[in-house]
Protein 1
Amino acid sequence: MRKLLAVLCAAAMLTAVSGCAGSSSVTAASIKNAGVLKVGVKEDVPGFGLLNKDTNQYEGLEIELAKLIAKEFTGDDTKVEFTPVTAKTRGPLLDNGDINMVIATFTITEDRKLTYNFSTPYYQDAVGMLVKKDAGINSLADLGGKTIGVAQSATSKDAIQAAADEAGVSISFSEFASYPEIKAALDSGRVDVFSVDGSILGGYVDDTSVILPDRFSPQDYGVATKLDNKDLAQTVDDLINKWLNDGTIAGLVSKYNL
Ligand code: GLU
């Protein structure tokens, strides 16, 4: 039985079908064989990964990077399948093989590098704060006693805690599974501040709210792959470095006004 399983898993590997424990060697070649690159992207981050509700198409720098990688792997930039992810779902989706890589404002941290491969950073953002215009909160110094809404599995909580400690103010937290929930909590007064990367706040600012000028904790975004897919990680990293050096990524940064 074990032998049969091993044979099946070997066959699955050849056709890039995942699901066999320990046999997740996705490579550029196996993606080419599969005929499609599966990428986890954001659907609510303007300029990075945004699902345009009018066209039903994804757009942004991270979407274009995914298409460029698909072109390198399959010869066709349309051979890419996008899966919308959140800070909470992107890791599990990668772990279970539903997607080949994550290009979704995923901050590279020392901790996360123990679980995933990250490419060289393609963009650096920083954490910011969104508040109601009439809240009387203008900077970190005004956060004393305030409740900060943050997303589960995001870097934001540690980042704003460190910034508040430095500013000498005491804060508390409410954690949410998604950004729309934090925005709703901000609107209804259950939290005083919505804190996450500035790029992400850009998708939620409206007439009643404002993004404060304070920025802290630089966030380097990298393309993440499964830890044991070393070849894939190396191939992707080579491409990101090529596009950093030849101006492709700088071109996208200016195209999307980032
Ligand atoms: N970029 C931050 C992180 O990776 C914020 C969360 C997010 O990307 O949604 O934790």
Note: The first strand starts at residue 37 and ends at 41.
Protein 2
Amino acid sequence: MSTNKPWGGRFSEATDPTVERFSTSIHFDRVLARHDLRGSRAQARMLGKSGLISNEDSEALLRGLGIVAKEIEEDQFPFDPALEDIHMNIEMRLRHHLGPVAGKLHTGRSRNDQVALDLALFLREVTLATQRGILALRGVLVERAREHIGTVLPGYTHLQRAQPVRLAHHWLAHAEALGRDASRFRDAHARIERCPLGAGALAGSTLPIGREETAAELGFVGPTRNSLDTVASRDAALEYLSNTAITMVHLSRLAEELVLWSTTEFGFIELADAYSTGSSLMPQKKNPDVPEIVRGKSGRVIGNLVTLLTVLKGLPLTYNRDLQEDKEPLFDSVTTIRDCLEVMAGALATLDVRVGKMAEAASDPMLLATDLAEFLVRQGIPFRDAHEAVGQIVGHCSREQVDLRSLTKAEMQSFHEAFSASADDLLDLEVSLESRDLAGGTSKDRVLTALAEVETEIATELGALDALEAADREEDL
Ligand code: ARG
């Protein structure tokens, strides 16, 4: 062999150092070490069982892989950029420990199906971990919602006060969106069901390798059906990136509310000191940096999705080295969303709710204008006429600078004869909330029902996650 590479036979010159620096991926794809070793163990066992290599050789490979695994675990592995990627680093290390027998591991395998397998194993793991992070945040939202069934604030449309809602209802709204996010990761996980190993470089192998066997050992339902697609496709990574982008968009909306609500202008919440930062110049400042950074990081996670979409667009089948560009955006989104979910859960769990400020904002009688119109509807008045009459009342109050509540029965009747009481008698915040007693509405019972449903859902999903994670744990064979 004329170079340090396993393909040395074809080459007479070493790689140019610039090219080496340019093309190496070991500084990021080392993240896949565990998954690569797991795939190689399955490969080594299968080669022995199928008789392609002797049992002794198979055992030697497994022993060598064990040594390498330990080195990686203990941070003793000498990663070498000249060896390009994680696959070759591990293979060459195996050769260092075992000698030439190490060269048997790659029988019937290419780095193309190998990296596809590593990614599948990695994605299976992170789709579960991300779901767990989402569930933890939902858990905090639900806990805080339970504390605040009786806390009322204005609900907003166009960021204008619209109608009163319970804070529990508001936080459960975010829990709903996050629930759908978790289910998207669940769906994506279920789709990672076929094993790439054995697709070879692109067209399989002339050797009788046991694809079913490695697929079963690695927890897949079976081998992939088309060797070309196996090494060419990266849509499982795209799906993870797109699910992550959607979730981050949801997190950024929640984050934006925390920023807004912690302003003096709103004053609805105060973030805990542990989740805020000060200003180096202005002593009075307490800044909501945590939600701000979450809001900002949604941009980079969206960017990661766009990066991979753009890399894949127009690539001819099958494997192209461009595909190596799948990893950095993927790994970045995995850690970014993990951290964002964690800090958002912490910020929400520790923030102080200014119940009085919320109540004050919600006591604006204009929030109940729709209720007045619906009162008329109950008297048989067409909704459009009722809307018109109440619109005139609201216009009158704002022009004359009078409080809606001060209007007497006679004044109310001057706008519509069907009003049977003074405004004050017709307007009641609690009655308003309670009378929105439809599925998904603001009455206490409806909110409590929704809350209980979400709590049950979280418990069920945690159980399912435990089971999936246990099933994916490699058995000691
Ligand atoms: N490191 C490569 C990647 O991440 C996998 C190796 C395949 N390389 C190759 N030249 N066929 O995509």
Note: Residues 364-435 form a domain with the Ribonucleotide Reductase Protein R1; domain 1 fold (CATH 1.10.40.30).
